[in-house]
Each structure stands twice: as C-alpha cells, then as structure tokens.
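Narrative of accomplishments. A recurring question from our advisory board has been how the design workflow behaves on a single, concrete structure rather than in aggregate. To address it, we present the structure tokens for one chain from the evaluation set, followed by the sequence designed for it. No filtering or post-editing was applied between the two.
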C-alpha cells in the first residue's frame, strides 16, 4: 500500500500458444540464472571486499553485460531490471529482520526455479506534452484481448473486466492451472465517509461470521469438502517414483486441486467482505483482533481455523474499507464470548465451544453465543471511539440510542 495512492491488482487469465509458452519458460530460466548471479555478486563482494552492492550498481552492471554479450541483450531489459529489484527487496527485508532482531533472519537463498516474470510500464510523451504510461493491453473487441509482452509480442488474455487507474506494473505467473497476468494499477485514495451505521462481526468455525444484527454466514469449509480428494492425490504422489514422469503428473494433479480450494476460498472471502459493506450498507465494520498464527497452535482446531482464513478476511475488509472510503476497526478479543451483552457480567465458568447459546446467570438473558459476542465487539469499539476503557460496569454503552450517537 502506497502512502498517498492506493494500488489495486487485477488478475486475468492468459492463454499463450505452445510456442509462446516455450519462450516464456526459457525466459523464466534466464531470469532465475540472473537472479542467482546477482545474489552471488552481492555475497562475494561482501565476503571478499566488505563492499555492499546497491541496486543501482547492479543495474549499471547489467547495462555493461548487455553491451558485451548477446546472451543478455536478447532478453527484455525491463524484466531483468525487475529481477534485480526483487533481489534488492529480499536483501532489504533481511536487513530489516536483522534490525528487529528476529529469530529467523532469512538470508536470501539461491533459487531452483522462478515462477513469474514482471516488468514495469514506461511512460511515453503525448503530443500535448503529457507523460502517460502505455496501456499493456490491446483491445480487439472480441472474446480475447491481447497482452503486450516485451520481445515476445502479443499474448491472448481473457480480460473479464476493465481495469481502473494508472497501470504501473505487469506480472505473468505460471500456476498449476495455467498462466495468469497481474496488472498493478494506482488509484487516488478515496475520502473517508462519516460513519452513520456500524456493525460488529464475530468470526468462528461453526458459522463463518455473525453480525451484531444477528445475521449469520455459514462456514463453507472448502478444505474439509476437498479433503478426501486431497488425501487421495497425496497418496498417489507418494506411491510414484521420485521425479519420474508419473510423479510429475501426480504432483500437477495435486497442485491443481490445492489451487481450486485456494481460489474458492478467495472468491468467498472477497464477496463476503464486499457484501458486508455494500449490501448491508454498513459504514463501519468492527471485528476482533485475532492472531490466527497463534491460534493454529491448538492442534485440535488447527485445520478448521486455517480453513476459515480469518486473517485473509480481515485483510480484505480493511482493503475494501480503504478503497470505498469506509471504516474498519479491530478491538482486543478477550472475554467477548464470556460476557453478557445485556448486563455486562462475566461468566464464572468458561463457555465450552459446543455450547451454542449464551445464558447469563445473573440477569437470565439468553442469546445465540456468536450474536452476543458480536454485540460485545460493537460495544467495545463504541467505548474505544470515545476514549473509554471497555468495562463490565459501563451501562450507557448498552443503550442503543447512545451507541448510535457515538458513531455519528
Ligand atoms: Zn446478563
């Protein structure tokens, strides 16, 4: 995410012909060699001369190499520069982790394979003197448009929607189910609206989410539905001879199935986040600040938690809110399920995961467990907005009129 401008990535299916695909594979091999070479250069310069090589040194070095041999000059320069930028980014992240004294420093490794080709789009001057970036796609008016790839020519692309903003960078990626093109566009930041309605959201494994209005979205459990298929494919793979033709075939089949599950999940999460803001017309959405990476340490729930992908859902909510000028908040998660949303008393005994109804022992209030938690999350956010600490004694926050007033 940029400071002043927002970036949106559009993903399109790309269909290269067999000869084009061969060219792309050759290009992937070349970029892999270049990446390893640039990494080695950094390593050796540091080891023998204690010299740190910058990205600009390497780009200058690339120019010399291109002038000297055709081995480098016959490949597109824009892709080579992107590869150097990639090596630089890996080093920067490594340096950041060293500074933070992280447990795993993660020194950049040599790559066995590279899966994607990126290139940034250059600006060109119009007759009016204005400088604009070239459009990477040529429209044909037919089912497929054409993507301009440097040195290769045009490749068929299924552009199912127009992209918005200023295109900056293009990436071609090989996945198990074919080639995909990612176009990164810059759009100006949208203005934040004044929140008039807010909604608390409790996520769970039983129902994917429950809103403070009592609405539920069932958990689709994509992994669980595909689990038998995946187990079979894993078993098939383990029975093949390592790196034989059949082994590669089985590996492909497994990767395809895993990709299908990932795509289903992404589709569901993106649509759910969008609906929350637009179909229900909430200006602000509040969730708990969960840490799924810690939660998956519970080995009884790990698969279900990973399958639900709450982290991804929160990221998407945050992103949709930023794009459309809405609000997204996260509040501390402790005791949201254990507290009564009516009288704010906390249960003495912890509610088990199998108990779906919350029953308050002090005021006799009964409500669905997730609905009660979603209400508590909304109360907590309302308190935080007014600079108060959410406590069991605060009565006024439970008054629906006051609750609404504090958001407007
Ligand atoms: Zn109560």
């Amino acid at each position: 995410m940029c400071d002043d401008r927002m970036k949106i990535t559009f993903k399109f299916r790309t269909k290269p012909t067999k000869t084009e695909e061969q060219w792309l594979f050759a290009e992937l091999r070349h970029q892999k060699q270049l990446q390893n070479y640039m990494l080695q250069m950094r390593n050796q310069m540091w080891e023998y001369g204690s010299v740190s090589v910058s990205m600009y040194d390497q780009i200058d070095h690339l120019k010399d190499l291109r002038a000297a041999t055709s081995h480098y000059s016959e490949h597109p320069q824009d892709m080579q520069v992107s590869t150097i930028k990639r090596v630089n980014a890996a080093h920067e992240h490594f340096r950041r982790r060293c500074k933070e004294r992280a447990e795993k420093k993660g020194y950049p490794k040599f790559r066995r394979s590279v899966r994607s080709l990126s290139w940034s789009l250059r600006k060109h001057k119009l007759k009016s003197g204005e400088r604009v970036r070239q459009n990477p796609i040529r429209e044909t008016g037919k089912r497929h448009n054409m993507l301009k790839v440097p040195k290769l020519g045009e490749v068929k692309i299924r552009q199912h929607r127009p992209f918005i903003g200023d295109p900056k960078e293009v990436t071609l990626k090989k996945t198990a189910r074919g080639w995909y093109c990612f176009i990164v566009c810059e759009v100006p930041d949208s203005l934040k609206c004044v929140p008039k309605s807010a909604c608390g959201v409790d996520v769970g494994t039983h129902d994917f989410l429950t809103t403070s209005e009592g609405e539920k979205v069932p958990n689709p459990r994509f992994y669980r539905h595909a689990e038998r298929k995946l187990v079979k494919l894993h078993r098939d793979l383990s029975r093949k001879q390592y790196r034989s033709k059949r082994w590669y075939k089985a590996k492909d089949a497994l990767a395809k199935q895993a990709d299908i599950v990932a795509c289903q999940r992404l589709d569901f999460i993106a649509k759910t986040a969008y609906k929350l803001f637009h179909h229900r017309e909430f200006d602000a959405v509040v969730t708990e600040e969960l840490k799924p990476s810690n939660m998956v340490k519970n080995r009884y729930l790990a698969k279900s938690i990973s399958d639900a992908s709450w982290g991804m859902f929160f990221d998407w909510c945050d992103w949709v809110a930023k794009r459309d000028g809405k609000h997204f908040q996260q509040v501390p998660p402790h005791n949201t399920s254990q507290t009564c949303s009516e009288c704010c008393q906390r249960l003495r005994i912890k509610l088990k995961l199998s108990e779906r109804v919350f029953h308050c022992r002090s005021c006799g209030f009964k409500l669905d467990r997730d609905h009660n938690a979603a209400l508590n999350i909304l109360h907590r956010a309302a308190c935080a907005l007014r600079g108060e600490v959410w406590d069991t004694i605060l009565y006024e926050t439970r008054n629906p009129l006051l609750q609404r007033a504090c958001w407007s």
